[in-house]
Design goal:
mainly alpha, two-stranded antiparallel sheet, globular, ABC transporter involved in vitamin B12 uptake, BtuC, about 0% strand, about 325 residues
Length: about 325
């Protein structure tokens, strides 16, 4: 019964999700070829959403410009290949982490001084500045044509000789391994003194400062960790997509990260993960259905959010709680009868 009440914040739920993501790939490749790649995209986006939710769900700061760090991780990978000839995926990830760390520190020193809509607009403006730089400096970034990235070397092993299906499967499980590691780290962070301090700042900033917590420093830590997760996701996304374009830093991509997190339920640890996977499939389904896929996708998201105000995980928890109450009431009635 504890699992029923805490399914959204129970570590066992995370283990189940990782196992399902591992099993679901070969199933989709057999039943619906092509959809297994969508699952891989969902896994990578879930990394970004996990980091974003540290900022939103645990710190209470809503960023409208988180695509800045996602795009930064992707562009660092693309530029490293284009100008240095680097092909190691681990080096791409390290570059994405370093770039996101430095940029988030510089930006965070300013933006975390603000909250609510001011913080949101500032992050949006910064992301749009980066997007315009990617777009205008076309002789460096390729502009709207972007930067093409070939298959990378993974753990020192070239992947160019692999078939398409073998590469996609290998990349999925490699990304899933990164997701599992980062999800575990995030679980440790959110259940550490730092995580509880962030919750305290979110719930009551004044009382938190009275007990000696540094509000500014805690928000900066949260912002930087969140940015690092987005940078890693961007570095993983670029070689899979084989192309890095300014769209990855545009405000609509930031909106996608926000939608995924809210869709799954930002009040729950596994909410952003579930939201990312479901959003990826909903988007692919809508794109394949009609040229007006934005209308279909937007309508589906609005309907889900109206019917499930606490996200998908919140709706599941409520349903399980009602079922538990029903079972208990039946047992009471049977005993009394």
């Amino acid at each position: 019964m504890v699992i029923i009440r805490r399914i959204g914040n129970d570590p066992r739920s995370l283990y189940v999700i990782i196992a399902l993501l591992a099993i679901l790939y070969p199933v989709l490749s057999i039943l619906r070829p092509g959809w297994e790649v969508v699952l891989t995209y969902g896994v990578i986006l879930a990394i970004a959403a996990l980091g974003f939710n540290l900022l939103l769900g645990y710190t209470g700061l809503l960023s409208f410009g988180h695509a800045a760090f996602f795009g930064l991780g992707a562009y660092v990978s693309g530029l490293m290949y284009k100008y240095i000839g680097v092909r190691g995926l681990e080096i791409y990830i390290a570059g994405g982490v370093l770039a996101s760390l430095v940029f988030s520190l510089v930006v965070g020193l300013v933006v975390v001084r603000y909250t609510r809509i001011f913080f949101s607009i500032l992050t949006l403006a910064i992301a749009q500045v980066l997007w315009s730089l990617y777009l205008k400096f076309y002789w460096v970034t390729g502009g709207t044509d972007g930067i093409k990235i070939p298959r990378p070397d993974i753990v020192g092993m070239p992947t160019t000789y692999m078939s398409y299906d073998a590469f996609q499967a290998f990349y999925h499980y490699y990304s899933l391994a990164w997701f599992a590691i980062l999800a575990y780290i995030m679980w440790r962070i959110t259940n550490s003194p730092l995580g509880y301090a962030l919750r305290a700042v979110r719930d009551n900033e004044v009382r938190s400062s009275f007990v000696g917590l540094s509000i500014y420093r805690l928000r900066l830590y949260s912002f930087m960790i969140s940015a690092i997760y987005a940078g890693i996701a961007g570095a993983l996304y670029a070689p899979l997509n084989r192309l890095v374009t300014p769209d990855l830093a545009y405000w609509t991509f930031s909106g996608k990260i926000v939608f995924m997190t809210i869709l799954g339920g930002f009040k729950y640890f596994i909410g952003p993960i579930v939201g990312s996977i479901i959003y990826s499939f909903l988007e692919s389904f809508a794109i394949g259905l009609t040229i007006y896929w934005q209308l279909i996708l937007g309508s589906l998201i609005i309907a889900i959010m109206l019917l499930m105000r606490e996200g998908i995980i919140g709706a599941i928890e409520k349903t399980l709680a009602r079922y538990r109450q029903y079972i208990i009431s039946r047992r009471i009635n049977n005993k009394s009868g």
